[in-house]
Amino acid sequence: MRRTLAAAAAYFVIVFGLAFLLGVVRTIFIAPRVGDLAAVLIETPVILLISWRAAHWSIRQFSVPAGVSDRLGMGLVAFLLLMTVETALSRLLFDRSFAQQFAAYSTPAGAIGLAAQTIFGLIPLLAARRR
Questions:
Q1: DSSP H or E run through 83
Q2: Non-local CB neighbours of 43 within 8 Å, separated by 6+ positions
């Protein structure tokens, strides 16, 4: 259990850190030129590739067992960390309420982002299935 939690935390930190940087680039440089939806469509595959690589690294680094419960647990903890930190930062940086944050997922760009976040949570399980 300890290895699974450590792997989830590492997986979250790696992906969140890189996604945050990509989000800044998307918001400042890409979205003004192509629009929010196109910018998210450009960014999403990059983040999912980073997620795939980070999950594999975390699984190896922390020797997470290949069982469904361990890998799903890793993904669920990482997903919950991601949603918690994203909601908190949204409140602190943009003064968005929880309702406003939740409403943002109803836009096309927001729905794609939420789908990608869900896939992020499932990637450790998918990595177990692949082998």
A1: helix 68-94
A2: 22, 23, 26, 30
Tell me the residue range of the domain where 41 lies.
2-130
The pair of structure tokens assigned to 40 is: 């998210």
**CB–CB of 10/61 below 8 Å?**
yes
Angle of helix 36-61 relative to helix 2-25, nearest 10 degrees?
Answer: 150
Cα dist. 86→27, 32, 62, 91, 97 in Å? 16, 22, 25, 9, 12
User: Domain total for the chain?
Assistant: 1
The predicted-structure confidence for 11-36, as pLDDT tens digits, reads as follows 999 999 999 999 999 999 999 999 99
Distance CA 5, CA 2 (A): 5
